[in-house]
Amino acid sequence: MTEYYKKYLIECLNACLKMEPVTPPSEEVDWQKLHRFATQNGVVTNVYLALKDTDFAPEEELIKYRKDYEIALDKQNTENEELEELLAQFRSQNIPYMLMKGIITRKMYPREIMRSAADIDIYYQTGYTDRVREIFFDRGYNLSFSGLSSDFYKKVPYLEVEMHKQLLSPLTKIGKIFKYNPFLHGITGDGLDYAMSDDDFYLFHFCHLAQHFYDSGAGIKFFMDIKVMREILNLDDEYITLKLKKYKLTKFHDESVKLMHYWFNGAEADETTKTYEEYVLDYGAYGSGVIFDFNRTNFGKRNKYISAIFPNAERLAIHYPDVKEKKYKVPYYWIKRAFDYKGTIRSRLKTVGSYHHKDFDKIKDFYDKIGL
Fold first, then answer.
1. Residue 136 domain-assigned?
2. I need a labelling partner for 52 at 20 to 30 A (CA). Which of 15, 147, 266, 329 fits?
3. Residue 72 in domain
4. How far is it, in rounded angstroms, from Cα 254 to Cα 231?
5. pLDDT tens digits, one per residue of 237-278
């Protein structure tokens, strides 16, 4: 995407957060191209809110934006109604829980619709799994995936709930360092509905952001969240500094905040910030395949094919949790995985084989610059 489309997308997001119409573009804009770019980055509703009251965006060009906005609004209203009923059932059965991530963050925005969420994230204790599953099945959900860190429940047309057994994946660097038990360290009024303190919620956001970069990358919504959180939350800088040092995320936090200030507060950008912008905007809301493969092939060394065919026990446990406690079953699950995911493995081998070591060297250099 050209530099101007990136610049204008940021202008739209700033206008949206200020609840103002965006100023006219200084260059000719292909509105459908802008729509595709906004969709790729998961912010098409924000761009629509910035454009809808202007007199320069052609009405016929805004039809697709408006349709996406109306779908997003219906999805969010459905989520909110469902969540209220779901949590009432948890409480009626004395199941402790903690809401997480986007479902909380979006309430900090001027309007909730300014922050879309892929799903509803809830943390719970695994001792309640049978009762939780019974609740979901009774409400018409299907269990679409059960893994090491979480279970995914889906109900058409919109609803997806991720029930977290762990706050972060233990397979990532940060997941191995971050230690936080919501039911010991969280805030609760009734012993069932738990929440993080402002400081811990802010810290967890950066841990979660780092985890995304240890997977396939992350999108601009994370940085909009940083802006909103720093304006809304009551933060203890000394405590946050201490914890960031413990999590080895001080530099990552500082570089991420710099990028936020560049986009949303008019700060100047240095070389690292411009590179960071490129990785976030060019790769979209959920990152890219090349970063995903970089994180799984030991930075592009010769074992990239071996990693794709024979993942270690920790990686296998994502799809086959049993192997976490029974590592002697690793060879069995290699064979099972070869049958279960043969199409995916074949595709991965082809994709990984197409990368040059320079692709991975560039990513490694970027990760070094942002503190990962």
1. no
2. 266
3. no
4. 16
5. 999 999 999 999 999 999 999 999 999 999 999 999 999 999
What element of type H or E holds 164? strand 159-164
Last residue of a domain, one of 12, 33, 57: 57
Buried b / exposed e along 143-168 (16+ C-beta atoms within 10 A): eeeeebbbbbbbbeebbbbbbbbebb
**Would the pLDDT of 86 be above 70?**
yes
| Residue 102 belongs to a domain | no
Integer Cα distance of 142 and 362 in angstroms = 41
Helix (H) or strand (E) holding 202: helix 198-213
pLDDT in tens, 44-84: 999 999 999 999 999 998 999 999 999 999 999 999 999 99
Parallel, antiparallel, or unpaired for β 150-155 and 97-100? unpaired
320: in domain: yes
User: How far apart, in Å, are the Cα atoms of 194 and each of 13, 48, 237?
Assistant: 32, 35, 23
Nearest to 282 by CA among 334, 221, 218, 330: 218
Q: Which domain holds residue 1?
A: 1-57
On whether the pTM is more than 0.70, the answer is yes
| Cα 60 to Cα 301: distance, rounded to the nearest angstrom | 50
